[in-house]
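To illustrate the input format used throughout this study, we show a single complete record. The first block contains the structure-token representation of the backbone; no residue identities are included at this stage. The design step must infer an amino acid for every position from geometry alone.
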């Protein structure tokens, strides 16, 4: 560590884990190039005095400090300026954009709720799951698995019209499942806005259904088309404004991102960023809501400006401390997996099934060796169980490209079926 100090100084990251239930907050200071923990501890208060006492032993160590990276917490800013006087203090660019996006994210969440309510009001009965007459456990695995359902081959070939009806039913159910899934989307600001995404993906479903009913006007699809169009029309204005605001955030992020651009100094980045803010302020005059969004972005930008640009002049100073924060997220994931709390773990189990509970082997070679001892027929049966379980989730994707491919395939399948002019 002393050698790093002689090579230009340590690059420190200071971050705290959100406390729970009034408990003390865990704070960690790491050296960013090595990932080593310099100092950590539980802090009962987060005022300037507490942070000074926490950071002072690092300064007393006598090793040069090149820069500090942290969130923009007022008491921490004062403490860093006091303990590491004259050391550049960079602010996390992700947190900057996240704070600037607050009113946009709130409006997006409200639009998502309203859109979901309107869709359910229009076609709730259509997209709602039908209750089974008696409880059904579709897939059971483990040491005592259920038998794999046999794929029956009819002794009498199906009539063409019967086969076509089955195919139509499959396509309709796939579309209804897609709509149900889209109504469950959750956002992750500043770049993933669930309301905007829900609107855009439902619009894709509308375009798909329109092609289907042009070929064969199935009654449920006509109802689905009418209901979705009504719900989307009611939220179209909000969608346009939120899309504009989301694009502002994307433009700011692109301006700050060095990837794919020639090397730029801090002043060059600041100049491009200032021009971007000027465009946002001008475009914000187009409506009262856009003006509110642009005003918040400009206010937060002015507050963060002193610490946004050190990363372009100081080697090894990152633009964000999210990589270190990911260690906190991994901790929460481990807690979820060991305590059984709801959240990501529950979603994984629902989508992946009990197979997610089976510990995997660390390497492909060990996995191949283990599978080689499994009886071939047992392997095929378990693979079939996985396929049966995952089948209902095949349209549960947030990938734009993948969802468009899936809808296109539904249209292709539909158009191979006999057309009818009768509604």
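Output of the design step:
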């Amino acid at each position: 560590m002393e050698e790093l100090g002689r090579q230009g100084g340590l690059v420190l990251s200071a971050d705290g884990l959100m406390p729970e239930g009034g408990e003390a907050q865990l704070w960690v200071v790491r050296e960013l190039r090595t990932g080593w923990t310099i100092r950590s501890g539980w802090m009962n208060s987060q005022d300037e005095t507490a942070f000074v006492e926490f950071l002072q032993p690092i300064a007393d160590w006598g090793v040069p400090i090149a820069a500090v990276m942290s969130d923009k917490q007022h008491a921490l800013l004062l403490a860093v300026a006091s303990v590491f006087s004259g050391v550049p203090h960079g602010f996390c660019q992700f947190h900057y954009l996240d704070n600037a996006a607050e009113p946009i994210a709130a409006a997006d969440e409200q639009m998502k709720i309203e859109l979901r309510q309107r869709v359910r009001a229009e076609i709730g009965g259509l997209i709602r799951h039908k209750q089974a007459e008696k409880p059904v456990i579709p897939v059971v695995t483990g040491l005592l698995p259920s038998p794999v359902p046999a794929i029956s081959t009819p002794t009498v070939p199906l009539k063409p019209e019967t086969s076509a009806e089955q195919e139509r039913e499959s396509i309709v159910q796939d579309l209804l499942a897609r709509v149900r899934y889209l109504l469950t989307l959750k956002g992750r600001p500043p770049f993933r806005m669930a309301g905007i995404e829900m609107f855009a993906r439902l619009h894709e479903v509308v375009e798909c259904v329109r092609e289907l009913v042009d070929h064969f006007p199935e009654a449920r699809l006509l109802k689905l088309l009418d209901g979705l169009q009504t719900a989307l029309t009611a939220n179209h204005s909000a969608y346009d404004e939120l899309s504009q605001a989301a694009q502002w955030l994307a433009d700011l992020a692109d301006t700050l991102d060095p990837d794919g651009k020639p090397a730029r100094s801090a002043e060059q980045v600041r100049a491009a960023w200032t021009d971007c803010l000027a465009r946002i302020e001008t475009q914000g005059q187009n409506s009262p809501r856009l003006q509110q969004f642009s005003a918040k972005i400009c206010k937060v930008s002015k507050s963060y400006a002193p610490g946004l640009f050190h990363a372009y002049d100081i080697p090894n100073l990152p633009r964000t401390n999210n990589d270190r924060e990911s260690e906190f997220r991994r901790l929460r994931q481990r807690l979820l997996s060991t305590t059984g709390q709801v959240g990501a773990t529950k979603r994984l189990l629902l989508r992946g099934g009990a197979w997610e509970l089976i510990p995997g082997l660390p390497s492909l070679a060990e996995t191949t060796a283990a599978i080689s001892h499994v009886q071939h027929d047992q392997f095929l049966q378990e693979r079939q169980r996985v396929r049966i379980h995952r089948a209902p989730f095949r349209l549960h994707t947030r990938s734009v490209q993948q969802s468009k491919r899936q809808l296109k395939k539904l249209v292709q399948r539909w158009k191979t079926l006999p057309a009818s002019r009768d509604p």
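Structural context for interpreting the output: The chain has 16 helices and five strands. Strands lie at 10-16, 25-31, 37-43, 65-70, 89-91.
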